[in-house]
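Changelog note: in this version the structure field was regenerated for every chain. One regenerated record is shown below for reference.
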Amino acid sequence: MASPTPAGLGVHDELLRSRATRLRAAAVGTEGAWLVQWRNADTEAAYHQPGHHTLSLYLQGGEAVRCLDEPQARGAPDSLCCMPADHVSRWDVRGSLQLLHLYLPRLPLAEAAERWFDLDPRWATLQDRIYFQDPVLSALGRRAAALDWNDTDGGLQLQQLSLQMQARLLLQHSGTRRAAPQVRGGLSPLARRRVLQRVEDARGAELTLRELADAACLSEFHFVRMFKLSFGMTPHAWVMQRRLAHARELLAAGRLSLQQVATQAGYAHLSHLNAALRRAGLGSAARYRGAAAALSSQVPVAASWGA
């Protein structure tokens, strides 16, 4: 869920001191990582060993921005900058632009490198790069920027995208690069039961990736990969599928108002439930309830079957 209060992040705090406007912010996980979207125009900024890693993606504009330490470099939409914890740079910002920043504390990223890829955490440092292209990273960042961060399920989606971005940084833009390990199998039967039970127990309450990974006794990164191998979809897609199934059951039962159904199934508003139903080709909540009631009236009672 979106939160307005990242603190102790040098790049973030420097932008706040400039004329940049923080549009929204969201904590992604429990290890101090944040996604922040900025609007900026006609200002200056300087970063001096912020103590955390920053991935910057230009969403709009950037052609008139100059890094004074690399004056020949040119920004543009989908350009990326990777600024590690010991990064130093000065910036002259001209024109209007929007940025997506992913802030990653140094220690949790090093620990993730060791857990996920067996990298020595002492060598899991990101490359210092001003303006480079990585279509995979840009696509992940744009997916994150396109989400409604205040939506009930925005937190889970953002966590998944953040993990994918971190893995990409470690494998392609760190001091130690290696191929991604081969993944075999999936969740064990016991882990599958625990995770699915956790989803069912939530019954519409917000779930985090950490909670689901803990149920499987895995790191978040390995959990996402093993879950997809087991179920053919991401954890978020599975949760959405179960949430919609629960809403359909409540609609068919006919005992709750449409808004009550949306709330109990975990949708922030009835409009969100309607959107989910339409994506599944089922119309609005009212239409689905009407169709379910009509179908129910046509089904013979058990006595007519000789029961």
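Spot check on this record: Residues 154-172 form the longest helix (19 residues). The domain at 242-298 is CATH 1.10.10.60 (Arc Repressor Mutant, subunit A).
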